[in-house]
Amino acid sequence: TQAKPPSGAGASGKKGLTVATVPVQKKEVTVNVTGFGQAFPVREAKISPRVSGDVVEKNSALESGGQVQKGEPLFRIDSTDYEIEAQKAAIRVELEKNQLDQLRVSFERDRGRLSAMEKNTALAKAEFDRLSRLYTINRVGTLSGVETAEQNYNSLADSEKNLKKSLDLYPLQIAKAKSDLLNAQADLRSAWLNVKRCEVTAPFSGRVKDVGVETGAWVTAGSPALTLADDRVLEIQVSLSDRDAFEILGLEMDSQKDPGLDVRHLACRVQTVTGRVTSQVPARVRVPAEWEPHGA
Asked: How many helices (H) and strands (E) does the chain have?
């Protein structure tokens, strides 16, 4: 409002005021806060081979700034030695299978033999007892006949005892053969896995950085060969003063509440510069309720 003095004084000496009004108009005002930061990919990975060997093939896009797609081959390592190891492992698996099968067959065969051997041993004992009684009581027969019958019985009894011991060992031998077969099968899977690992593929689509692999060069398992960055989502870290962050941008502590405004809050963390609050504090940024940030 503006006040102007009256053009003349009244007879009574009283002064009047002339008032002018200006309508208030609501408009949006852009708030600018300046900061400096460096953009870098949120997702970045160092690609390392899982096996060692000579590089025999390399993707033509495998240079700084090249673009590759997810699952696309990056480079290939000579797999000859790993294929030979896989073939040897396959042979060991077959040998262990044959060993296990032979033990199972022998176990069933010897169990059948035991039944027949027990009958023969019983018959030999009965014959020895009969000849021994005839010779001792009735003086029928000869001493050599009794001794021969005794030797036959003792031989069959020893064979029966040894067979029973063998049968007792079969379960342990079969269990060990099963374990050896599982180990051989695990070695075979590991060998073929190493063959597959000779081809290194891109874990995601992105841009190639820091290439350190060349055709004909030797690469070591676990050593970084290149860096792959996903440029679709970038992150920029910008340092702001307390005033810019809390007063101009409207960042506030979690304990503060807004009085019913049509806004919502996004959680964030603020690292202060001037020391107004402790560093790395949780905060919230106020945004319009309908605004959706990228990746939310």
From this structure: 3, 12
Q: How far is CA 32 from CA 29, 108, 244, in A?
A: 10, 89, 9
In the chain, the N- to C-terminal Cα span, in Å, equals: 48
Say what the pLDDT of residue 290 is: 56
Which one of 12-21, 205-214, 230-239 scores highest in mean pLDDT? 205-214
Query: CA-CA distance, 192 to 198, in Å (whole number)?
Result: 10
Residue 243: count other Cβ atoms within 10 Å of its Cβ.
12
The amino acid that residue 120 corresponds to is N
Does the pTM surpass 0.90? The reply is no
Please choose, from the candidates 225, 202, 223, the residue with its C-alpha nearest in 3D space to the C-alpha of residue 215: 225
The alpha carbon of residue 182 and the mean position of all alpha carbons in its chain are separated, in whole angstroms, by 23
Residues 6+ apart with CB under 8 A from 274: 241, 242
Contact 262, 289 (CB under 8 A): yes
Tokens of 138: 């009735």
